[in-house]
Request: fold
Amino acid sequence: MTNYRISARATAALQLSFIADALAMPVHWFYSPLDIYKAFPGGIKKFEAAPVFHPSSIMNLHSTNAGGRGAQLSSNAPQVVGDIILKGKRKYWGIANQHYHCGMAAGENTLNLHCLRVLIRSIANHGGRYSPSIFLRDYIQFMIAETPQHPDTYAESYHRGFFANLAKGIPPEKCGAVTHDTASVGGLVTIAPIAIAELLHERSLRRVQQLCRTHLFLTHPDEHLGRICDSYVTLIDALLFNEAEDSRVLISATAKQSAGIDVQLLAQKYQDDNQVVGGKFSRACYIDDSWPSLLYLAWKYSDDPQQALIANANLGGDNCHRGAVLGVILGLATGDGLSDWFAQLQHAADITTELDVLVERD
Reply:
């Protein structure tokens, strides 16, 4: 296999990650497929803007001063949301049925994918290598910028917990907060660029797993999630350098080893994806449900990434972050970055430049 084929797979993986997130954004955390089809007749089939009404939103119950749920203070006292991060956007948080990504346009990416871009730039600007300290510096600067660097109105628990700890004077490398949803699929969104860049530099799986764990624990300090991260990096390595093996074999082996499930049997047993994602496993962010769900989708749609991302979006729940990881696996498996669709992203040109620097082509 030529280096070009490997770099093309890497680029496709990251392109699909951005596509999956933007595709799912308008129905992110819709927990009933009926609500998705009510808001978008026929379901999500293309990039759409965020609707005004969100039937499943509990954004008004989420803490604006810490990770997890909690009080949203009405006083003028400084808070994490609005004063440290998401400046000027706290006003959106106290409204019932408010969309998490209020006002975002079709083809726009959510905050976690903008953080993925921060990571990609930090690697590219450091000679193609990952540095935890440089990432933390860039992440903090990005999140606290006086002029918002992203369009999102929502930040997951891990962002709020991190900056709550930083405001207390805790060193950045120890600011990762533990909440009820620390072990969530959102923690895996920024893993792929590190794994790809470092494996292309030196194919030492154990070293790269450790480096990815170090990064993960900066924001998601959870040992169980760390073990899933190890399995994810192992799958990235196998697919990136795969020469002849059927990608479904690699995905199936990962599912059995890391989640104890037979994805082929699931696909044969259930005709409707909702019976698996939403039935057997929750649609929510928790890794014990989201990881087997996305491996099931990766196996079932291993040769059709576009249909996979459409299916993922219409399953609802944490479809943005589940989709971002699913996209990586499918891009590596097929080498198809759905370029025509990718070009419709709001920031496609800038992302392309960033990816070209990260994944040098011979």
